[in-house]
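Revision sheet: structure tokens.
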Amino acid sequence: MVNRNLIREFDVSEEDWEAAIGELATDEGGWLDTEYIDVNQIVKGQIIRVDNEFVLIDVGYKSEGTVPLNEWEGDDSQPEVGQTVRVLVEDVEDAQGRLDDRGMIVLSKRKAEKIEKWMKVMETVHENDIVSGEVTRKIKGGLLVDIGVNVFLPASQVDIRRPHDIGEYIGKTIECMVLKIDEARRNIVVSRRSLIEAQRADKKAELLKELEINQLRSGVVKNIADFGAFVDLGGIDGLLHITDMSWGRINHPSEIVKIDEELEVMILHIDYEKEKIALGLKQKSASPWENVAGKYPVNSTIKGTVVNVMSYGAFIKLEDGIEGLVHISEMSWTKRISHPSELVQIDDGIDVVVLRIDEQKQEISLGMKQTQDNPWEKVADKYPTDQLITGRVRNLTNYGAFIEIEEGIDGLLHVSDMSWTRKISHPSELVEKGQEIQCKVLSVDQQRRRIALGLKQMDEDPWATDIPNRYQQGQLVKGKVTKITNFGVFVGLEDGLEGLLHISELAEHKVENPQEVVSVGDELEVKVLRVDCEERKIGLSRKRVEWAEEDEAAAEAALNEGLSRSGDANAELKGGIGGDSGPLFKSATATAEPEAATTAEPEADVVTAESEPVSVETAEPEATTSEEQTEEAAESSQSDSQSS
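Predicted:
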């Protein structure tokens, strides 16, 4: 019988156990020599005949017994007549006196030997003893080890880390610790793992006393993971992390170490409380970062190999353990790069220039474009001021259009440089993406890499001669109301040209709200009060349309008289255009139209509203240079240029 609780504990079936070890007896017999012959007793017998299948043995019973000849197979000497052997009585005649089919009792030499071996083992082996034997067979749940008899080694007890295939131990002689013995049922369970753990515990305690930081020790690689390898130092495992294997780039620890490989490592850190040890392999050699500035001076050109490509740049290997980063912004002077893979691929050999070195952080900044001439250094010579150039509209923004002059070289055509007379709200009102246009170079800033372009500068300024010739003081003109503000009304005189009809010039009576008098779209006849070419403004009047020359003279005389009485002979009347634009005319008195001098809004300059599509107050003449295109527009032009 077998101890079922014992074998179930180690996940082995009863059938596998019996097939491997076998039933030695059906009852608990003494197996002692006795003068009585009975079942399950071991007795001495003498061989009296040997034939082809059986050996006939006389055991002193009333009938002889037979043993199959194959029980002498193997290393046993062949049976001979007259030889004495020990056999187990397996069966005798029953109550009716019947024997086996040959009329003889049944004997077994093999079982007798096995029982005697078990009895000897039981006398010499105890729990926690160390035994040695050969692994003879693999069964479900473990191995059988012959220590004189077959004992069971569960798979979980073969090693500290369960092997992939425990069958590789078959034929090997191993040492194990006896875990459990059931003498009554002749079951023995052993553990190689427990023995190893006990031995390692002793070695670990001794080893921890010997280990020191920066000490070199030999060890054997026992396991490999993605993050590193575990190395047996002879009683305790240490972790060799992937980052401590090599100064160079490693994708997986298996590139450096192999299972069961013996190697020399350095002790980096010891945690005595948790019994953890950090190991290093690369620390055995000097760091390649030592004196890196001397090996790779700034501005020097060197060769490297692309080892990784990211969205923000490419990593270049200069030597084992030394890598630098070429940022995407340092790859080309002119090309607009969306991803570094457009220019480089892994394993490409390229020339780079050392830009910066941070030895503390172990970082090197490299540049690819620095190995080539910077085209911006020649831009000023190629595109001098006032030169006409032809380019393609590459991108549109709220403040202007970027014109591609050549590959990677863009100029900014600011909205203020598109028209002399029109106020451009968005560049799409004049140009479209992809359109080829001709512009004039206004300025080149090589240091900031900016080229200012102008479209309106290709024609003469109409305010220089054309507008003052066609619109003169006192002239009656017609136009449509384009916008109404709290300080007056804007009147469109022609395409792109407007004048300001100040609230004081709307009607003979005082007007509080211009919308009570006119509406957008109304066609009005107005009189030109002033044409200011310098300020690019035209002042208009509606109430003076019917005035005769004497009325104008009287109004001017009254104004001058009023100013003289006030003690300010140099006072200026802002009629017609408001603001600080200077006088339209002077008067002796201020009694004629006091509101003309006092009610003008300080911000009533022509077309100051951002939403006005058309203006007589276009950009200042000096606003065509890059400095006047606002710092915000200039700064954002670079990012907009790159993004498109």
